[in-house]
Amino acid sequence: SSPKCLEGPGGGSLQLRFRSRLSLPLYTGGKVEGEQGAAIHIVLVDSNTAHVVTTGPEASMKLDVVVLEGDFSNEDDEDWTQEEFDSHLVKERPGKRPLLTGDLQVTLKEGVGTLGDLTFTDNSSWIRSRKFRLGLKVASGYCEGIRVREAKTEAFTVKDHRGELYKKHYPPALNDEVWRLEKIGKDGSFHKRLSAEGIFTVEDFLRLVVRDQQKLRNILGSGMSNKMWEALLDHAKTCVLSGKFYVYYTDDSRNSGVVFNNIYELNGLISGEQYFPADSLSDSQKVG
Question: What residues does the Calmodulin binding protein central domain cover (predicted)?
Fold first, then answer.
């Protein structure tokens, strides 16, 4: 049997609290983490003193991790009863896997605990508020007869991971797969046409934009309207280049050369010891 918890002089003042904010948005199948990937810490506090309760049986009790309706009690300083808290618990939809999987219990040590691995199996679009909260309550068999106020996080949305897997990137990175660009659907016809021509990454795409834009337009074909093409180019051009440069020297003396960036745009000329940026060159120098 669990050790008896003794109600302190300020009886009913014990509260569980989340000390960390969640990293949002959350996706089904993804790990629930704190901001910047940090662990999510919880504490047992005496609300009369605002101090962590580090001794006594309550400081080492077990807690259940639960899912709550997003519209449960917006203010943290509001009080609620155990019955109110329990009436806002969310279970999985009929015929679905448990809504939350992973380490569904936490053990406090000297009044402090850390959430383990947790994953949502379903999105939050089907409940009234369209949002969930995580909650913590004392596990059965611990500190019975004593009121320990449950903890809850802020309300958050859980989205289907498909959205994450297929998301466009803003801005796109050079080594992103080409379907991260607007108007190129993953495994769609444009994606397949580009792949067939050896254009797998955003960098491959941008290089062809510079070298032979018409060829690229022809690869994508008439299925892509001019409006889509403009949107695709605009998105691709927001890509941050890597700062790599290529220099082509005209002869072995390496006296004069042409400088290109990593998507083969003309960057400038090297002549003797001097560098001339592309925007300072006349048209005849560029042709030469």
Answer: 173-239
Tokens of 50: 């605002």
8 A C-beta contact, residue 85 and residue 123: no
- Tokens 């609620």 label which residue? 80
Residue 197 is classified by DSSP as: T
Q: What is the pLDDT of residues 75-91, one digit of tens each?
A: 666 789 999 999 999 99
Q: Quick one: tokens of 16? A: 């569980």
Whole-structure pTM over 0.85, yes or no? no
Q: Note the residue count of the chain.
A: 288
47-82 burial string, b = 16+ CB within 10 Å, else e? eeeeebbeebebbbbbbbbbbbbbebbeeeeeeeee
Q: Could you give the 3-state DSSP secondary structure of residue 287?
A: helix
DSSP lists the bridge partners of residue 67 as 134
Q: How far is Cα 14 from Cα 45, in angstroms, rounded to an integer?
A: 6
Amino acid at 101: T
Angle at 228 between CA 224 and CA 230, to 5 degrees: 120
**What are 114-165's pLDDT values in tens digits?**
999 999 999 999 999 999 999 999 999 998 888 999 999 999 999 887 666 6
Read off the amino acid at residue 181: L
**Per-position DSSP letters for 36-91, written without gaps between them:** GG---EEEEEETTTTEE--SSGGGG-EEEEEEEETTS-S-TTS---HHHHHHTB--
35-38: long-range contacts (C-beta < 8 A, 24 or more apart)? none
